[in-house]
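Need tokens for this chain, all 483 residues.
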Amino acid sequence: MKPIGAVLLLLVASLVFVSAARAQPANDDFSNAVVIGSLPFTSSLDTRGATAAPDDPIDCANNGSVWYAFTPATDMLIAADTFGSNYDTVLSAWTGTQGALSRVACNDDFGGLQSQVTFDATAGTTYYFMVAICCGNGGSGGADLVFHVHEIAPPPNDDFANATQVTSIPFADDLDLTEATVEPGEPSPSCGSTPIGTAWYSFTPSVTQSYFGALTSNSGLGFVPEFGIFTGSSLGTLREVACHFGNPIGFHATAGTTYYIQVANGGGGGNPARFTLTVAPQPQAAFSFYPPDPSVFDTIQFYDQSFDPAQIGIQSEAWSFGDGATGTGCCPTHRYAADGAYTVTLTVQTFDGRTASTSQTVSVKTHDVAIKKFTVPQSASVGQTRQIVVGVGDLRYPEMVQVQLLKSTTSSCCTFQQIGTLTQSVPVRSANRTTSFSFNYTFTSDDAAAGKVTFEAIATILSARDAIPGDNTVIALPTKVSR
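Here are the structure tokens for all 483 residues:
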């Protein structure tokens, strides 16, 4: 057993350690806010001991907070965030004096546990940032805070004269169009709206081929992108060679020619994005056809469903139907003369010359059965059981066939009710030879009351579509029924 003095010493040491770990940050109170002298600014801080003062604002969550202050010398767009912190933060910005603050911005969970605020700041005004711990009872508790503040300025390639040079493919560049401007005399993409801000890239390809430009953002673009591709040497001499409203853009470029890529904000607030330029991907050839189970009696409709991911578009389609016949266009038709498996190939070409092909097997199989005989009695009496035979012929493939036997009702001359079904295999037989489906029917007093009964037979192939269904239904001459 340890001496009592040793236990007390250990307890005091533990209390001192816990107290040190939870010491209040120096900028825990508004009055001790860390002054930000210049931008960009980054601060790393342990906020486990952060507290909330009674006069802290309460209309943006605060379960312990730290404070920062910044006074811009010029008007600017400011962005502050807690990206990189390892706990749930709430970030807000304020103006005014302690106990009488006015909220400028507040954000919790900007796509996750961290926060971001963006606002226009006025020169000479002091802005106070409160970085708070989220949620009740201290929430997840404070931890390691990473706090950033920076100015969102026009991109360095905001003007045509400062176009960023694309030195190699693939190319990628981080771009923020939030504060981008439009120069006097700057052309607008002909396919879109008048942009509110643009950035420029210059590209002189070493290989003649098609290229593919796009904007992406992890948090969503937040604006409508527009692209214009130009040749020329100055704003006044630019000639548009390609345009696209929205993402992405594809264009064909000639080696040695300089192209100017205008990336524009066509409307919206905007988020930081990445501009990429790569070799244009090949088109994706695809097609469908109907019916999916054609016979030699069907005229098949083909549909081009190809897609050009570069958004330049499909210019032409060439078809080979596998039996020596060919076709063109988006939606040709074709009819095969004989059953068989045919390889159909579609080759598409884009407006800039890229090609792609795809093939499918079209299986042509003609299934057809017919009712060739239908034997019913000419007359019968009540209570008498007579045989009714349906003869089904098949000249093509063995089939599993269901035959329904129906009789007319007394309520209508043309309404039939089912009285029996039979299912059996029907082999291929030549000429007029048939497979018999034999039914027994006992005539009723209702039949006698009507004076006659009419029988109908319907033959159905169970595992395939009948190519000529018109000969699968037969109505016999009426049978006279007496008492």
